[in-house]
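Lay summary. Proteins are chains of building blocks that fold into shapes, and those shapes determine what they do. In this project we predict the shape from the chain. Here is one chain we studied, written as its sequence of building blocks.
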Amino acid sequence: RCRQPCAVSDWRSVPRVCCAAVMLARRPHSLRMGARYLLGSSRNSPLLYRQLVRSRRSSTIVSVDRSGLRRGPELARDSEPSSSSSRASSPLDAILVERANFRGPLSMAEFMNMALQHPEHGYYMQRDVFGSAGDFVTSPEISQVFGELVGVWLAHSWLSIDSPRDARFVEIGPGRGTLIADVLRVLDQVADTAESELRVDLVETSPALREIQRRTLLQHATPAASRATGRGDTLSTGSGAEGASKPTLDLVLRSGRKATVTWHERFDDVPSAPTFFVAQELFDALPVHHFTRGRTVWEETLIAAQGGELAFVRAPSATPASALLSAYPGGALPEKIGAMVEISPSSWGLMETIARRVGQHGGAGLVIDYGKDGPAEDSVRAIRRHAPAPLLREVGTSDISAHVDFAALRGAALGVRDSVWVPELLDQRAFLQRMGIDVRRD
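And here is the predicted shape, written in a compact code that computers can read:
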């Protein structure tokens, strides 16, 4: 996730390590390039988290014993002069303070969930945060070439397993919809699918972003008659998994091929079928727990309310989340006293779900993000208007992000044991070159 808006006219000027990409696929021998595992590391990149958490304000005042809590670790997360606390200055600040007063300190993961996905005040829930006019810029917004090359990878993976007619193309966390629109432009030109309808599934929890995605798709395709309203420029209600109603948009692409786009709250809601998925800057959006190695236990970093302010504290003993450390799928954790780690069980669970779907029904997946081949130490950051922002102040008005642990994602995928292949590591430049960016640029 870029901290500054930029425009790249020559892809040779893109930094060699701009982000990382992970691919996984079912093991069939015909999958060649379509089944590579890509990874690159990034030294100073932020990440973010997305999950829906409901919070209810309570008027009850409850006294919580915090006498055993230690002062929080000195973390490089807040750009304020004092990084340990920050006074409430947004509606969500007040909600978080009240919640911490009512039930005690929050974990970092709980804080991130509320900051990004609170139904009323969450960062992603109400507005467009992307692009030069927002808070950060992603690769699909810089050039259509990026999305088209992702489309080349998806098309190749699809063709490699004989182009199943019931295949579903899934993007999780589609942002503005720019990437999937570019991908559809490529899939529309694949000869083997000239007479088939494309089924596209977008996993998105934000109503505001769903509307932006709809408008983006309508800029790149002709709307077909809506199932419910007779109009092609509005979302109709189709039948989703388990009979649930799902927002659906019917499109006619330039070749005349039909495409049906369906929105879902969760990846689990996407119907079972050969699945080809892409997640571009998604796993950086999932919550993490932060721990520091103490003399006897891993001490979790928590966020407490102190005098009407949010402040970092450290639990002196094991917390419920401490049990998750033993399930870490990325290898051994450091044992040195004072070592810090971030773990993201939400990421592990999602990768396991995706890998199981690919292993059981066929398909392939591509994950592109910032991160490293192991757990980050202290990567959680807030960004507003393309610049660092205080993490505990004006919560809900800034993007929050952290480095992705690619070792953990790989371990989670391989742990499924359903014939899933997680191949070699590549940085983004190498991936784009393999997809033909030099030819596309020329």
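What the prediction tells us: The mean pLDDT is 78.
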